[in-house]
Structures are given as C-alpha cells and as structure tokens.
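[scheduler] slot 2 assigned
[scheduler] job type: sequence-to-structure, two independent chains
[scheduler] chain ordering preserved from manifest
[runner] begin chain α
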Amino acid sequence: MDSFTGTGTLVRLALRRTRFSLVWWVLGITALYYITAVSLAATYPDQASLDRLAASVQGNAALIAMAGPDYALDTLGGQTAWQTSAFGAILAGLMSTFLVVRLTRAGEENGQDELIRADVVGRSATTAAALLVTTAINVVLVVAVALVLIASGLPAVGSWALALALGCAGLVFMGFALVFCQVSSTTRGAWGMSGGVLALSYLLRAVGDVGDGTLSWLSPIGWGQQMRAYDDERWWPALLSLVVAAALVGLARVLYERRDFGAGLVAARPGPAARAWRGGAYELAWRLQRPTVIGWLIGLAVGGLAYGSIGDDVGDLIGDGDLSDVMTGGETGGQALIDGFYASAVLLLAIAAAAFGVASALRARAEEVSGRLEPLLATALPRPSYLGGHVLVALGASTLGIALAGFATGLMNGWVSGDFGEVWPLTWAGLSYAPAIWVMVGLAVALLGLVPRFASLAWLGIVYAAVVMFFGPLLDFPDWVDGISPFSHPALVPLEDLSWPPLLWLTAVAAVLLAAGFVGFRRRDIRT
C-alpha cells in the first residue's frame, strides 16, 4: 500500500459529501459574472453612455481601491472585468478554502479521518482527494464563467482571460488553506488564517492600485487583474499564480510529513483561566463569535464607506436605464436621484447584515453538530440560555452592523460632498431595516428549533430577498412575490419618510419565529 492508496474512492466520497455546496458555489459565482455583464449591456447601450461612465470612474481613488485598476472602462468587457474580478477572486478563494478545510482539517478534528484510515487508505490519500476535488471545481468554474460571458456577447479571448484569472485565484488560496491546515490544529484556526490572507490580499491590491502598483504584485487578486482581460490580454500572470499554488501545495506536503495526525504545527492552547466567566452561556457565545463579529462589522463599515465615496456623482455613475430605476426607486434626477441611490445602497447593506445574522444564529447548530453542545447541556446550563446567547449575538451584532454601515455611508458621503447632513438620516435608514433582519434571524432560529436538519435553508431567505431587490422591478414581479421578502416593506429612507406600522409588523413576525424556535429547541432531541 502506497501513500495515495484509496484516493479515487475518497474523491467520490468527497464529491458526494459536498455536491450541493459545489453546485451552489458554481451557480452563484457564475451568476455574478453573467448578471453583471447583462446588466451593464442593458444600462449602457451605446458608446456615449459608456464614455460618460468611464469618465466618472477614472481617477476615483476610492472606487479603484474597491474594485481594481481602471483598464478599458469605456468598453462593456472592461467594465465587467473591473466590477467582478476582485469580488469574484474573493468568492473563489472562499470556495477553495471551504473545500480544503472541510475535507482535510475538519475530518481530523471530528474523528472522521480516523475511521477512514482504519480501512485500506494511504496516509496522503485524504489530502490528495481534497486537492483533486478543489482543483476540478475551479476548472469547472473557469469554463462556466467563460461560456456565460461569451454567451452574453463579450469577446471570447477576454472572457477566457477573466475566467482564468478567477480560477487561478481559487487555486492560490487553495494552497494557502492547505498550508494553514497543517499549521493549525483546529478548523477555526485554519479558517482564521485563510481569511486573514484573503483580507491582506485585498488590502495589498487596494493600496497598490491606488499607488504605483508595486504592492498589487504581492496579492493573488492583483495577479488576476494584471491579466488585463478585454484590454490587450497578458497571460503570464496566470503562470505566476499556478507556480505559487504549486509551491504552496509542496510546502503543505512537507509540513504534513512533520506533524502528527490530528495535531498542527502550532499546538492548541488552553483558554485564559485567570477570570471567572460571569456571563455564562452569553459570554461563551460572544467569545465563540467575537472574531467573526469584528470581521463582519469591519466589512459592513467598509461597504458603507465605499458607497459613500461616490458622493453626489450618482447620475454619472449609474446612468439612465432600468438599473437606474432599480437603484433609485424610479427617481431620475436631482436630490431625489441621490436619495434613491443611497436608500437602495443601505438596503443592499441591510441584506448583507441579515446574512451575517443568519450565519451567527446558525453557529448554535454548528456547535450541536460538532458534539460540543452535549457536554455543555450535561451541566446545569438550560437549553434556552444556550440558544439565547447565540441569538442575542446574532440580533445585536447584525443591528449594530447595519447602523454602522449607514453611518459610514453618510460620513464618507459628507467627506466627499462637503455636506454632512446625511450622516444621521442614513444611520436611521440602516436601523429601519433592523426588524427585517430580525425576521431573517428568526427564520433561522425557527428552522434550528423545529426542523434542525434543514436549518441551512435559512440562507434561501437571504437569496430570495436579494433576487427580489435586484430583479423585482426589472421583471415586474407580482406584489405578493415582493411582499414575501421582509426587506420590501420598510420605507426607502431617505427617499421616503419613515413608516412605523410595517416595522412593528415585522418585529411581531420576528418575535413569533424566535418563540417557535426556542420552543422547538427545548423539546426536541439534541444530536449526539
């Protein structure tokens, strides 16, 4: 038996375990590129409108830092590449990291790999299977994105370059994740270090693109953008990505041979014992989720700053067309256009904050599935207190996040335009979506308590809200379809005056869902 015996069997097992998530990752990322290309073509139908858009964007340091260097912005292909490449690379990186950590470190942590190794399986088979599956899904992603871009009418060469940049970024972050799985002895540690590299890569690219470009060459995201899709394409940065990815996999192999099974190069340390936990289950939930909360708050604040950096140049940026109507509530000029744009921007940030709230609430389910909940409940800890800690973090942090995002939007808008009068209106605009966010958190808690196997379906609520927001006005959805989304009911502040009755109704619905979730969690069996 050699080190890779059983790799083929483990590849089939990995595909079976991750088949649903793989489909959603590929569909989601591919949809991002296709929708961006089609929306741009519909919004900017002629060269004159593209020229106006390019003129409003070029030289805007905030937008360049957010999206990337401004190549060929007076073309549909250039705009598509500019608006998707950075965020697409982040999504591909998250996808690859998720797969590698789940198929390697998570298996060692929860004992699954120990059972697998009891059969005729080589020492390196699990890692090899994870690499094969992750590499294959990145190749599928490259082909899918290239084909949908070509189908949307963009040039074939540029489409393949943009898709290849996406796949190369995914492979580089796959290599980083594999190295960190050898360094850390926990999935949380591997996730944290991988997320840190993703954030650092985005930051280096942003600073480099605003400056002389030197720091951009230290970022895997920047390498893909330097391929200049749709603008005299360069292919050698893709080779750089592949070499670095291969080097990282080789480094991970060396580290893997120097550690014990189940352990990492950095040993796990016990937590601080100098101070008693006065907060009980609530403090435990906060400590478990504190790094994620801080990361999301920073992300929402940065999102608000990015939207606020547009200032009053809203008309030049979004142009005239259907997308303009979607983003501005049908307003076409003057202050109403600006207010409509920022109302829609805050709505988008609110949906992002709701996604964070759902993820935070579902952390209670993750602790249960991992087997860490049962020892807790064997003590005097009541079930409602355990669930209440995670729900309190989900509700409080998501509400704080959307308020912070609205405040940051108004603050940066005031910095750019010289008028700080919109700071508090936009902060209140964010807070007006808090009841809608609570409904989403309540849905997750209700599923967790009543039908825990389907708790992850709470994410469909976020997807539905996003689809209604982006496509409802364009496709003229019926009112009842729009009405299902809780984000359709609050007023578009500051474009519209705040209306309290919808907020009170949403709060009542959230309370009912939360109550149902707590009752169900108290009565059902706990997974052991």
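[runner] end chain α
[runner] begin chain β
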Amino acid sequence: MDLTWSAEEEAFRQEARAWLAANVPANPLPSGDTRAGFAAHLEWERALFEARWSVVSWPEAYGGRDASLWQWLVFEDEYHRAGAPARVTQNGIFLLAPTVFAFGTEEQQRRILPRMAAAEDLWAQGWSEPGAGSDLAAIRSRAVRDEGAGGWRLTGQKTWTTRGAFCTHLFGLFRTDPEAERHRGLTYFLVPLDAPGVTVRGFERLDGDEGFAEVFLDDVLVPDADVLGGVGEGWRVAMATTGSERGLTLRSPGRFLHTADRLLDLARAKGPGAHRDRVVQSWIEAQAYELFTLEQVTSIVEGRQVGAESSLNKLFWSQLDIALHETAAELLGPEAEVDGPWSRGFLFSLAGPIYAGTNEIQRNIVAERLLGLPRR
C-alpha cells in the first residue's frame, strides 16, 4: 500500500480545496432533517452538481468527473475539512447508486443516475418495517404480479425512513414469493413516492427534527422496469447496498479526521493535560480508520471484494464517532449541554450503533463470516 499521493491526486486536491473555499456557505445550514433545512441543503447539492463535484467518481456521462477511488477519498477529505454541509442526497448517491452501477440495466442507469446526481430525484431507503428492522429478512411488505397491467402491485408499510417526508423516490425490498425461505423470494423495487396508492407520513425524532417518515403502500403498481437486479434476487442485491451503507462509501475517513482535528483544537484551548490520554487515543483511532480505509481501497482497486469486512468498518466508525464526541463533552464540562456542533454531533453519534444495521448484528456477521464461529 503506497501512502504517497500522486501529483495528479495533489492537483485534484488543490482544485477541490479552492472551489470549496470559495463556495462553502459562510454560516452552517439549518438541519437537513427539517423541511426548511432540507430545501437549503438542496440548493447546496445543486451548486455541487453545477460545478461537477456532486458525484466525482462517476462517469462524466452521468454527471461525474471519472475520478479514481483515490481521488474520491481526497475530495471527501477536503470536503469535511472545509466544513461543508452534510449531504442530504447520501441515500441515493452513496447507497443506491453503487447498486445501480452493479445490478442496473443500461436503461436504468441512464434514467436514474443523472437525475440523482443533479438532486432532481431524491431517494429514501425503504428497509425497516414495524416488525423488521435489523432482521431485514423478516419483512412482510409484498409484491404480487399483475400480468394484465404488466407490472407488480406493492402492499405494505416501511418505517424509520430517513428524510422520507422530503424525498421523491424510495428503494426497498418486497416479498414476491411468500412460500420461499426468509432470505429468498425477495425482490428489490424502485418506487416513485407520488405513485397512486402511496401515503407518506412524516414524524418527529426525539430531537424534534421531522426527518423520519413511515410509508404506506396500498396496491401500488410498479412496472418491470423498476425491478433492480431481477425478480427473486432481492437479498443478493440488498446485501450490496448494505455493504455500501456499512462500509466506506457512507462514512469516509475525512469526516472523523476532521472531527479529531477539532478535538485537538478544543483540548489546546482548554489547556495542557486536559484529558490528554483520551484525546490522543481518539485522534490515533481516527488515523487508524483512515489507514484501514486505504487498505480496503487498495484491495478494491486490485480487484478484490470487501464483503463481510464492511461490518468491521461499521463497528469501528460508529464507536469512534461516540468516543470523539464523549471526549469533547468531558473537555467542555457543563458547556457540552449548550446547543452547538459538539452537542448535536454527540446526539447523532448515539444513533451510529443502531442505523445501518445494529452493532449487535454486525458482531454476529463478524463472528460467523469472518471468524468462522458457529451460529448460536
């Protein structure tokens, strides 16, 4: 693994840094999990697209720059160091898009990806159901073939849909063969949220933001063209999406490196010796996550598959995020309870062990698939 950036990558870094310095909003945008905040974030997303920074690693034909995976990491590093807004398009760009590239037809790629890059279509993830959260194979939402209409009729309920109240489309799993085993008989569908029979009902989170939604589907007709990866292949396709969700595409190291640097600045401001060991440990772990990511990127570039190792990523970054913010809270003392970047970051970090598949599920995957331990 070569840790030296090439001249081309350094030039890419300088171009990204200059654009971000000139264009990142001077004041933080309101939360993207509120309706007003989401609208403000969309303006930012469209500015990124106009400058061809919204999907740097995608082919130019779909709105990208044909950048390498290494250049994407460079951009992510600069993006977070510039304090740029969180991406409200992340479910589409970072989760669904890699799956469309891997399993989508040429027609689906041409139809879906450019509109996603331009933030014209906004995608929500439709995994969780009232009786199926981390146990994704327990979903009950179903799809029944309608030969006369030439498509599928979807019925069921999805919940905990992040920013579902503001999005235009949903991707998710539906049971197409109720007699098949749990992980079989599932199909991956793409659903426009303005289709007849769809009801989207937003609801507040504990922090008061209204970013979650539950989605009800009542005999919603979806054409064959919106089946992704083939009928009955849903589990295999969904595992590719969850690999992106748990792995490096959702949580690149730039986010944690930037937070670790902010933690160092905070510790210096508090004076010598303030929780020094914990600050240093958190900073080291952020560097370790970057090195782990670089090793994974090297594997991908050399043609190897990451697979179940994405569960290690998820365990590491979710615990690291909490450690960084807990250390900051100790440094701040009572000030940590005042609303601000550290307090909001701390609250969000607490969700890390839950979303993208709970950490308990990830530990099971590591035990069974990576360590070869027996299932209990």
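[runner] end chain β
[qc] chain β: The first helix runs from residue 7 to 23.
[scheduler] slot 2 released
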